[in-house]
Amino acid sequence: MDFELSEQQRMVRDMVREFAAERLRPGATARDESGEFPAEIFRELAQLGLLGMLVPESHGGAGMDVLTYVLAIEEIARADASVAVGVSVTNSVCQWPILHFGSEELKGRVLPPLARGDVLGGIMLTEPEAGSDLGSIRTSYRRDGDRFLLSGAKAWITNAGLARTFVVLATRDPSEGPRGISAFVLDAAQPGVLVHPAEKKMGLRSSVTAAVTLEGAVVPTADLLGVEGEGLKVVLATLDHSRLGIAAQALGIAQAALDEALAYSKQRVQFGKPVINHQAVGFRLADIDTELEAARWLTYHAAWVSERPGRISRTSAQAKLFASETANRIAALAVQVHGGYGYSREYPVERLYRDARVTTIYEGTSEVQRMVIARALRDLATTAQA
């Protein structure tokens, strides 16, 4: 197996790393404190082609492969995870399903402005009573001539109030279960879309998250993704892919936390020597460095697998599970290495600790990832016995 990055992949990674160091890292703490969405930075990201990474050039995108996308998200998250999640959401859970399940007319109409960064994208899945169990959603739709009308409540929507284009999951009739669920592309710039005040979150504070109410929101029939009744299939395939972006985000946070822990442990002197020279600290840093490298290559492998034939549910779930859990362990240790200073907002590890926490929750909790992996193992065992 060839573990070398291509020249193009290295060029993109290095370009994003330089941009992140110059434009993202210096203001990350201030943005965290203010909670202000960095609109100017997103305009610059658009100019770099980073808001349409996975869209082919024929539709206005950069036409990058999945591993290059993962590398870019990792570098952005290393500097500011709030920016990384906004970039990931518009690229993955919005543009990816449109690219793979939309009609040619829909792709030609919707993808170019998204890929250019003229508008941002998002997805509306979670509801107040439906998080991990997407089959129990209550947002409804009905057909009205050549359009669908959507009504219901969505919760925890990233880029709400900022993005214009959303993928939305709704049901024709809750009694039909998964067979009644369809996926749509919604233009949020209409009176039927009500965005509530932004949530006051523990972390990722400059990434906007809010509840959304749909009141007869209009979706043309041409903006249905796939076929009616197969919305859950569309979304599950999307999440298989988008979890790679969350794994990459976790890698970036973890690397930043390790960077901070190493720098502090080298200059902090206790009992006559830098704390990294105390075995209790040095060995723990060695362990988390090893875990991070394992998480990184598991994620890179999952990105590589995602462009090969076959389902990627198991590999993407493994990457998201291991990378997010690892990020939380590393962020916690980084705080511990800093001692009392790690509990102060004066040091970046406090923010990294808060930002890492959500990676085990959104786009499928760690428990859901284990369910996905266990189901894949069950299916493998069944196949082997057949």
What features would you highlight for this structure?
10 strands, four-stranded mixed sheet, Butyryl-CoA Dehydrogenase, subunit A, domain 2, alpha+beta, four-stranded antiparallel sheet, 11 helices, single chain, globular, Butyryl-CoA Dehydrogenase, subunit A, domain 3, 386 residues, Butyryl-Coa Dehydrogenase, subunit A, domain 1
Description:
The protein is of the alpha+beta class. It folds into three domains: 7-116, Acyl-CoA dehydrogenase/oxidase, N-terminal domain (Butyryl-Coa Dehydrogenase, subunit A, domain 1), CATH 1.10.540; 121-227, Butyryl-CoA Dehydrogenase, subunit A, domain 2; 232-385, Butyryl-CoA Dehydrogenase, subunit A, domain 3. It has eleven helices and ten strands. Helix 4 runs antiparallel to helix 5 (81-101), helix 7 packs parallel to helix 9 (313-338) and helix 8 runs antiparallel to helix 9 (313-338). The two termini are 31 Å apart.
